[in-house]
Design a protein that fits this description.
Bound molecules: ligand 72W, magnesium ion
Distance between the termini: 43 Å
Order of helices and strands: HHHEHEHEHHEHEHHEE
Radius of gyration: 16 Å
Number of strands: 7
Shape: globular
Strand order of the largest sheet: 3-2-1-4-5-7-6
Largest sheet: 7 strands, mixed
Helix content: 40-55%
Length: 214
């Protein structure tokens, strides 16, 4: 049962990682998911691409859609410059509870705001509730059929501006074909596919990086 798996993952972090050390939290989760129980984290291979795009963008405000257990939340928050903020959205309270503990174990709770609820409801409230002008970086890793509606919502709410970078996980497996069509055919995005593998497997998957042109 998925929740129990996340609880076992949290236990593996508490047992094998060093409190306050994000790298050890990332390694502990990757080890657990590679050798014990597969889980849908972006993983170590695609994680290196996530790291490199983050380092290039160096966002002061970042958004993650689909926290799950907080693995990519930790990967993103550990690379943020002082004073930068990551808002992560998760609608399953049980997953959110585990993610909060993993983020805190990594010592990154001051950089991360985890908001519980469906992204479609929360995105329109971002400006008012968090004083966000626009997001420099958005990581899409929630239900794949929500990538297009939420991207359109971010545009309509003025939460992306010229130069904002969207990075979408799983554009090949499980796949987000409508999203690829949307960003690749739109004159408002400059898109590029980063070929990789599905987390902890040899199956092809990849990330799509799309720069909003305004
Ligand atoms: C309503 C909007 C909305 N608002 C807020 N939170 C939302 C939300 N929609 C979803 N969530 C939360 O996000 C997470 C879901 C993420 C969904 N991710 C995959 O399905 C996926 C699958 C594979 C794979 C599975 C099986 C295979 F065989 C191969 C590949 C690999 C991957 O990397 C994957 O990301 C959960 O925490 C949801 O509670
Ligand atoms: Mg994913």
């Amino acid at each position: 049962f998925a929740l129990l798996k996340n609880t076992r993952m949290l236990k593996a972090v508490q047992k094998n990682a060093t409190k306050g050390d994000p790298e050890s939290v990332i390694s502990a989760i990757d080890y657990y998911c590679r050798h014990k129980e597969w889980a849908m984290n972006v993983g170590d291979e695609k994680g290196l691409i996530l790291d490199s795009v983050l380092t290039e963008v160096n966002p002061s405000t970042a958004l993650e859609l689909g926290t799950y257990c907080g693995y990519s939340t930790v990967r993103i928050a550990r690379l943020l410059s002082p004073g930068s903020k990551l808002i992560t959205v998760e609608f399953n309270p049980a997953f959110a509870a585990v993610a909060r503990q993993i983020i805190a174990y990594a010592g990154l709770q001051d950089k991360v705001t985890l908001v519980e609820g469906p992204s479609g409801d929360l995105i329109p409230k971002m400006k008012a509730r968090f004083g966000i002008k626009s997001f420099d970086f958005v990581f899409l890793d929630h239900w794949k059929d929500r990538y297009v509606p939420d991207t359109k919502l971010l545009e309509d709410c003025g939460l992306v501006s010229e130069g904002s970078v969207l990075l979408a996980d799983n554009v090949i497996c499980p796949g987000a074909p409508e999203y690829l069509k949307y960003v690749r055919n739109s004159p408002r995005y400059e898109s590029r596919y980063y070929k990789s593998n599905l987390e902890y497997t040899k199956v092809e998957d990849g990330l799509e990086k799309s720069v909003f042109l305004g």
